Amino acid sequence: MAQHVLVVEDEPAIAESVAYALRRDGFTTTLACTCAEAEASVRQCDLIVLDLMLPDGSGFDLIGRLRHRAVLTPIIVLSSRDSEADRVAALETGADDYVTKPFSPREVVARVRAVLRRMSTATQDPPIAANSVLKVEEATRRATVSGRSLELTRVEFDLLARLLESPGRVYTRAQLIDNVWGDGFAISDRTVDSHVKSLRRKVGEAGGDPALIETVRGVGYRVTDRPPDDA
After folding, report:
1. Do 130 and 80 fall into the same domain?
2. pLDDT of the residue at 117
3. Contact 87/119 with Cβ under 8 angstroms?
4. Which of 59, 61, 71, 150 could form a disulfide with 143 if both were Cys (CB 3.0 to 4.6 A apart)?
5. In this model, does residue 131 exceed pLDDT 70?
6. For the segment 175-227, what is each residue's pLDDT rounded down to a tens digit?
7. What pLDDT band is residue 231 in, cutting at 50, 70 and 90?
8. 130 and 115, same domain (yes or no)
9. What is the reported pLDDT for 88?
10. Residue 136 sits in the same domain as residue 220
11. Which domain holds residue 65?
12. Do 63 and 81 share a domain, yes or no?
């Protein structure tokens, strides 16, 4: 059965070109030009291609509402805003990818396939556990520290999941950027450091030890079983 993509875009030429490229590649599509139309159609689709500037509201707000309602349908943002701040904000709000205008419809189709492939792989993965303290479940997007829930952004969750894939392994900032943000994102090392700092803070607020996420000076980060001071 063909996978269904909801294209939310108020410029008819862009919406039709994206939908046409998707249909040529075997997808079925629905077009929406407002946030209201998108929310009415979201449960019928496998992925959303979303413009950020819509007549009745912001795409950022729509993503936030969907994620607040635990709608996990993957979202690819289309936007003419190409700053790092906008890209990071979209990903933190709950988007899964970000494509800047102008773009090739073929690129959008490739991004759609990549995101759906990534989501399919994630739902097949078993829970990942680094130790008796930190744990993530890719399929349900749940993270815990000593059994207590962690309320993480998408980026924070993906950072923790990558670190937990190989406990004790040091991941460079460049590797984390590739794994969490993916190709095409001009993300700086400082952005990675900022998200790790936020992740540590939330681990501490939930009763865990922030030092479980350890800095390896001059290299990157790793998850450790015990903070160095306790060893």
Report:
1. no
2. 84
3. no
4. 150
5. no
6. 898 888 766 556 788 888 988 999 999 999 999 999 999 999 989 999 987 65
7. very low
8. no
9. 81
10. yes
11. 4-123
12. yes
Structural domain count, the chain: 2
DSSP the chain: ---EEEEE-S-HHHHHHHHHHHHHTT-EEEEE-SHHHHHHHGGG-SEEEEESEETTEEHHHHHHHHHHTT----EEEEES---HHHHHHHHHHT-SEEEESS--HHHHHHHHHHHHHHHHHHHHSPPEESSSSEEEETTTTEEEETTEEE---HHHHHHHHHHHHSTTPPEEHHHHIIIII-TT----HHHHHHHHHHHHHHHHHTTS-GGGEEEETTTEEEE-SS-GGG-
Q: Does 136 have pLDDT greater than 80?
A: yes
Do 158 and 59 sit in the same domain of this protein? no
The answer on 209 and 141 residing in a single domain is yes
| Domain-terminating residue out of 60, 93, 123 | 123
Query: Domain of 29: which CATH number?
Result: 3.40.50.2300
Same domain, 131 and 184: yes
How many other CB atoms are there within 10 angstroms of residue 60's CB atom?
20
77-120 pLDDT per residue, tens: 999 888 878 888 888 888 888 998 889 999 999 999 988 887 77
* Distance separating alpha carbons of residues 129 and 185, to the nearest angstrom: 28
